[in-house]
Amino acid sequence: MDHRPATALLYVVFAVGCGGTTEPEFDSLVVSTNSLPDGVENVPYGGETLAASGGDGSYAWTVTTGALPTGLSLSPAGMISGTPAMAETQDFTVRVTSGDGQSAQRALSIVVHSATPLISDLTASLGPVNPNGSACLNLEFAFEDADGDVEVSPPVRFQTLFSNGGTHDQTWSGGATGDGASGTVQAGICHFLTISRTSVDQSVSLFDLAGHESNVLTTTLPLPLSVPIVNAGFEDPVLSDAAYTDNDVPGWIGSDLGEINNFGVFNPQTTFFTTEAPVGSNVAYIERGALSQTLADVLEVNTTYELKAQLGDSKIDPIEGYALQLLAGGIVLAEVTMPTLVDDTFSEVALSYESVNSDPIGQALEIRIVEDGADKTSELYIDDVRLFKRQ
User: Fold this and answer.
1) Which sign does the torsion angle of CA 273, 309, 283, 253 carry?
2) Strand residues in 114-166 grouped as ranges (E)
3) Which of 82, 70, 141, 153 is nearest to 115 (CA)?
4) What pTM value is reported for the model?
5) How far apart (Å, rounded) are the C-alpha atoms in residues 283 and 221?
6) CA Rg value for the chain
7) What is the pLDDT of residues 121-179, one digit of tens each?
8) How many CA atoms lie within 13 A of 109 on its CB side?
């Protein structure tokens, strides 16, 4: 018997596979940019770069139809840059091609806005007439700015022109309310016009200063006329410091309540008012009485009258009550007894009245100022009486 150990044979067979290479697969090429930001004429565009996804990641861009706004260009890398030359809207189509041979397109547009707001709906009004005979012109207008809304940044400069030859430049930086071109804003433009009896309605134009000659608006501003008042500032007669007249105010008629020396002209010093007279040197005074003046002008129909006066309450003779009145034909048309005057100073007191057909049309206008305090030492001081009318 053969006692040799059995021998196991292990055969290992290696198989080697052979064949060609397989091309890599890429995602479909897509233009990712759906919209582009607006531009502003003469302002560098923000260097917007178009975006795509898919393909092998290497992209080349071209414009296939339409055109970019004047002044802008598209680089092969997809960057849109340049400075828009004019306000316009351009529609165009871009194509992107990737290194693997794919291509994709997208229709886009860029809106280029005017560099300054487009203004519309201009209205003009006057603020209160000041003691020096000037008034602040207030302009309101609607506009659309470079972003299509009513926020102005940077500040916008406007100019107002007046048919009487006056001009005024104003830089305004905001304060707008509302949205879009329908938003109404208070421009804050204040041009002080001198008001005189010979004034006529003025034509006011507002336009931007960027050369947009078509963007000009004009409106008519009814200016008030100053109604003549004799010795309205009580500078007649000329008085030395602290001097006064008894029962004599040139151009005015005084009436009393049985007191002596109850009205006159006075040159006040700081013992009465810290600032002395508000206009000029003199003021008038009333002690339990009234001053009145019948004017050469008559009451006109459909006319707005504005009567103003500086009324003072001195340190020495506190005022108890007063009335500022506008009359025609002896009939009180309007009266004001407020506000309460402040010690040691003058306050502007005003009333307004709009005449109607039932008023005493054609009758002489009259101004009356009354001091009606019960205490005979109470005195009212008066300066700078003014009357304006506008139709």
Assistant:
1) negative
2) 118-129, 134-144, 156-162
3) 153
4) 0.54
5) 34
6) 41
7) 555 565 555 555 555 555 555 555 445 544 333 333 344 444 444 444 444 433 333 33
8) 6
